[in-house]
Amino acid sequence: MARAKEAQVTDIYRPEPATVLQAKPVTEMEIAFAFRLDSGRELGHLPGQFVEISIAGMGEAPISISSSPTRKGSFEMVVRRVGNVSGAMHRLKPGDKVGIRGPFGTHFPVDGAMQGKDVLFICGGIGFVPVRSAIQYVLDNRKQFGRVTILYGTKSPAERLFCDETVAWAKAEAVTYIETVDRGDPKWKGSVGVITTLLPKVKLKPADTVVIVCGPPIMYKFVLIELQNMGLRREQVYVSLERHMKCGVGKCGHCQINGVYVCQKGPVFRYSDLTPIPEAFR
Amino acid sequence: MRTVKLSQQALDQWVAGLIRTQAVIGVQAKGDRFEFAPLGRSSDLRLDYDVTILPPKMFFQPAREPLLAFDGAAGFKTLLSDEPFVLLGVHPYDLVAILQMDALFAADNDDIHYRSRREKAVIVACDVQSASPNGFAGCMGTATVSQGFDVLLTRVADIYVAEAGTAAGAALLADIAKAPEADAVNLARREQVWQDNQKLLRKHDLRVSLKELPALLERSYDHPVWEEKARRCFSCGSCNLVCPTCYCFDVQDEVGWDLKRGVRCRTWDGCLLKDFATVAGAHNFRKSRAERYRHRYYRKGKYMPEKIGQIACVGCGRCISACVSKIANPVEVYNRLQEES
Lengths: 282, 341
Ligand code: SF4
Ligand code: SF4
Ligand code: FES
Hints:
The structure holds 2 protein chains of 2 kinds.
Chain A: E1 2-5, E2 16-25, E3 30-37, E4 50-55, E5 59-64, E6 75-80, H1 84-89, E7 97-104, E8 118-124, H2 128-140, E9 148-154, H3 163-171, E10 175-181, E11 191-192, E12 209-214, H4 217-229, E13 237-240, E14 256-257, E15 260-261, H5 262-265, E16 268-270
Parallel strand pairs in A: 8-9, 8-12, 9-10, 10-11, 12-13
Antiparallel strand pairs in A: 2-3, 2-7, 3-6, 4-5, 4-7, 13-16, 14-15
Chain B: E1 3-7, H1 8-21, E2 23-30, E3 33-38, E4 64-71, E5 75-81, E6 85-90, H2 92-106, H3 112-119, E7 121-126, H4 137-140, E8 151-156, E9 159-164, H5 167-173, H6 184-200, H7 213-218, H8 224-230, H9 238-241, E10 249-255, E11 261-268, H10 289-308, H11 318-322, H12 330-340
Parallel strand pairs in B: 2-6, 6-7, 7-8
Antiparallel strand pairs in B: 1-9, 2-3, 4-5, 4-11, 8-9, 10-11
The structure holds iron/sulfur cluster (2 copies) and FE2/S2 (inorganic) cluster.
């Protein structure tokens, strides 16, 4: 018979308790959450990493962290209602408890390749969520990075995330922020068209730029071709891949792309490292 | 360590003694086939079996395994099995599979659930006495083993040679302190059994060297065989289910009557099943049958070797027997690639 063992054993599957500080609907489909671990410790993540969030009775889901570790005291996520767990999360209110495991996976190279470079962020849809963590990090450590360019595409104006923040970014020194939508609405005055249509508007120094790309699977193909046309090498490009990260700890097998466990060697990859991995872009 | 000889009668008595003092899982008949199951009587033990329907992995990673108990939103407690048991009659190829699982569950992040079951098990391995219709352990280097067992039994003529491989195994054999040491003749005969088994367990003949298999797969990714074979694949996952080296899992919460308390359970999963790589939001990252079918061969022959340095197929032949479409034979696939790419 299985018996309950108290906390002294190290169990890679046991979540630790956290409390919802904030739950704010931001679009029709998405809620922005802030959490704090009940132990009081900081989550200790880096931009691009994810956690497994538990709703007891519903299960776990991998969710990327949308806030920067430079902002202490809490960590944030934006959760789209797509499955059982995210559906249950949409009923959470401040004060409610969840379970957290992690942070897991690799991060955007804010402490490595991005240092001292111009940074181009290219985000589609919900792919903006993990990238926001990196953008905050860069802006909070402004001197360590060069020019910042942020391109953001969504299907419609109503689906845009972090609107207040992007308005502020657009005004910041040495930051270019451009957004586009696939289909506008009567009030929309901005760009219309897929995200690749923004690239010709960007002036960059190809040799001195690091690119971060995050979006739906379909977006990668076109963006990556366009970047190569602009003279960027695969080594300068980082992508974040979405997979079914069930366990987060390299055991369950669900996240594999060929022989690579995305939960451990990803979700953030240098594009050139994905060349020998045909399942990376599907 | 001690190596003793046991008559059939002495073996029966020893097993009966084990059953009296601890939980024993042993091989026994199930209809006209065999299975590992709790052993009630020593006379039910069938060390002459060819292969069991399912491998012994379920005693280390049960098909449904409670990992955590929860009470309310955040109170998760680790559940661990604390029952020691003896696993009796494990064939060498299945032992090799268990040793691979040991490495995989311990690698990078130690899995306490697997380890706590594993550490409580004493494994009595047994050399094969009758070959199964589809086994090819002889081609995989897994027809015999020289380590990893607590005790190894080998039938030589009408007696058994029992060798202790660990202190736990020696302790188990201590019950039969009066058993005579195996002599040179017994040991020479055992050597002969090992040599014979290398030849006997070759119902399919792999013509690729194990060292070259990863490289062969490396250049065969777009070979037509994947599409061709997968056309007849039902995505039933039987080949995963019966495989001693398949350990991929799903995790689900089961809630009690009060909707507050429950357990988080790990269950077996398989990469051949249609939705194995589907994410919430419904995008399936391995949509076609051929991609899923190919993934299993690559995992066994390339990805796992890259991780643990061994081919993750031990040649038990269970997948060959289990597949109703007759397409799951690794030897057939690897030989074909060898000829054509
Ligand atoms: S057992 Fe055969 S039919 Fe079933 S999933 Fe495996 S290969 Fe396909
Ligand atoms: S792939 Fe088939 S033959 Fe190889 S270990 Fe698994 S079930 Fe046995
Ligand atoms: S999420 Fe389970 S192995 Fe990566």
